[in-house]
Amino acid sequence: MRKVVANAKQAIEGIESGMTLMIGGFGVCGIPENIIAALALTSVHEMTCISNNAGVGDFGLGLLLKDHRIKKMIASYVGENAEFERQMLSGELDVDLIPQGTLAERCRAGGAGIPAFFTPAGYGTEVAAGKEVRVFNGKPHILEHALVADFALVKAWKGDHAGNLVYKGTARNFNPLMAMAGKITVAEVEELVDNGELDPNQIHTPGIFVQRIFQGESYVKPIEQRTVRPRP
Amino acid sequence: MSLDKQGIAKRIAQDLRDGWYVNLGIGIPTLVANYVPPGIAVEFQSENGILGMGPFPYEGDEDPDMINAGKQTVTLLPGASLFDSAMSFAMIRGRHVQLTVLGAMEVSDTGDIANWKIPGAMVKGMGGAMDLVASAKNIIVAMMHTNKKGESKLLGECTLPLTGVKCVNRIVSNLAVMDVTSDGFKLIERAPGVSVEEIRKATAGRLLVEGDIPEMPR
Lengths: 232, 218
Description:
The complex is a heterodimer of chains A (232) and B (218). Chain A is an alpha/beta fold. Chain A has six helices and eleven strands. Chain A has helices at 8-11, 33-41, 62-66, 82-90, 100-112, 175-181, and strands spanning 20-23, 47-50, 70-75, 94-97, 116-119, 133-136, 139-145, 149-160, 165-166, 182-193, 212-215. Chain A starts with 7 loop residues before the first helix and ends in a 17-residue tail after the last strand. The model of chain A has no long low-confidence stretch (mean pLDDT 95). Chain B is globular, with a radius of gyration of 17 Å.
């Protein structure tokens, strides 16, 4: 099974308007930069995007928002993107804001064959509207359903030809979970290595979840809040 | 003299206990990490996948792949670990974190909290806040007692969309330390130089004052 493709353009073949995409990353940390840039060059639109955040104004998912390519967003925090907040408040963009832990678990469940689960998060808030409530151990929980996507677009630090992935630092975040839940999972990596180079003990995402992999290039890796402490 | 943000953070840090795992929300709560009392070792958990979060890096050492929940650059302390978001919220939802500190727009005297949405004006999203307040063993809210218009943020009932119900344990504001009880906000300590009367005027919800109320330790 040949998983390696040459570049982002090849990696996104088959993504069509109207599809549901999962995009990894927390803020702009660990986002699949090359894939998003390649998508922005196509004319796909009416997308439903599942991602924890909405990028910043002119980077990450922000690129797709600017051209109104996204019809619906499922996210947990969109505060860094003023254009996003504007589109949402004006009704141009349909948004489902869901608790971050619920988002993570819904993706994991989607990849793991768990169709639904109960969580205490959001009980008593508008997130619980219309959802079944059940009491466990004297505490109310709400029923949440698994999330899957036509394509899961993830970013990793290293990957091999078998599709195994290793992540670095806090760039891991949602990538392993979304990798499980995509019908087709596309991974861009900073370093693509031969099978046998990655220690099997250190694999974060086993290759079974990954259908396409390519070596990315020219990572920008913006820092949203550069915070430092003085040297003694 | 009411407290400033640093003063609130410093007072909350006095509630830290040795060996605790602690999650700090964005805003004033992050400052708590700067005031861990000597002799106390806690581990800070960051919802985006860090346990054992350290201070901000030195200038020049910033790593874009090492950020906290507020998207600020951070470092790791020896003994730290890194993991994905499902694992992170398993720690939180599974009640392995001893203390959560977060900010609030409103808190009710039954312990409800609203801190994620002002309808029609500000809808940034709840992030991890709902998971944190639904699961935490111990929740301390760091907040200003009144808003910019001088209106109380400590109410009988929240007017803004809720983040969680009946979950707040303690509030540390610029004026006071208060615990949420079945009789409403119980006044525990006054900020230095702040009177009980001042606190009463600034609190719209039920305020329980029993006996002499000490000032916060300096």
